[in-house]
Amino acid sequence: GVGEAALSPAALSMLADGFAPARRALANGIYYLGIPVGIGGSFILASWLGPWLGWRGSFIALGALGIVAALLVGWLLRDPDRVSGHPQRPTGSTAESLRALAGQVRHNRPMQWILLGCIAATCVQGAAVLDLLWWVRERGFAERTAQQLNGSMFLAGGVFGSIVGGWMADRMHARMVGGRLWFLAIAFAIGIPLMLLFRQIPADSPLFLPLAFTGNAIFMLVFGPALASLHEIVPASQRAATAALFILVTSLIGSAGGSALAGALADHFANSGEAEPLTWAIVCTQALGLLTVPAFFLAARGLPGQLAVSRAAVATP
Predict the structure, then answer these.
(1) Mean pLDDT throughout 214-222?
(2) How many domains is the chain built from?
(3) Domain with 303 in it: what CATH number?
(4) Residue 91 has what pLDDT?
(5) From residue 194, how far is each of 61, 96, 162, 287, 290 by CA, in Å?
(6) For residue 49, which of 36, 63, 40, 62 has the smallest C-alpha distance?
(7) Which domain holds residue 100?
């Protein structure tokens, strides 16, 4: 948690500096491949390492890979030159930077809607904390098979959602103002009902694995387009702080809140005698993802006006 909190704001700000605005959703999406590759890969590796090393040994082995990767990044990576966007201005003290960010949150209406939409989207992800139990207890898979299939679906679907979602969002951005946000509104309007349908079908249905893939792709759609849109409407000097705020609210409110809600609902349904408590806990929590549609719609509607305000502020000496 601490490592990601230090990494992502700086890394996402560097990506915004190093890539032209027209390509930022795809660049951010590629960065966020770390989630499906890391989590999906860890499920698959743990299914093989677990019987050999045990769960503690598996954690240590996977953590060692992270240390090696961090050393390579520290050795090879250098800050990019800013290729586009707002000119850099002095940021002042930390307190001044926080006050500027607070001002954006209070007055930047599209930013508010984007953050709310992202909270709803990551709440959907938070409910997936019950996924492995759901595959085993309510769909009848052996634990090792569930780890392998669930990990494979998250790996393949997450990579697809990150890359194709970022690419499609950038294409819509090139055609219309707010195109990335329109893309998210449309994608979630289609994707969330499919995710809810997935929880209602039996494991032997021919739709089971395709819908598992689709749901994991939807999990990863939001990051690239949403962050590119946020960086479009804040000054360059506030990009890292904005990314940090994005991570804070999506992790603390969205993902953690979704996990807590899904767990509480699972206990409630189990105590009420529901035959499939995990299914209905996940469905009720992931249904909150429908709130992404109006949130991203309203953000897209308000984006042109906010862009005009931001450009006027940059032009003011």
Answers:
(1) 92
(2) 1
(3) 1.20.1250.20
(4) 53
(5) 36, 45, 18, 11, 11
(6) 62
(7) 2-85+94-315
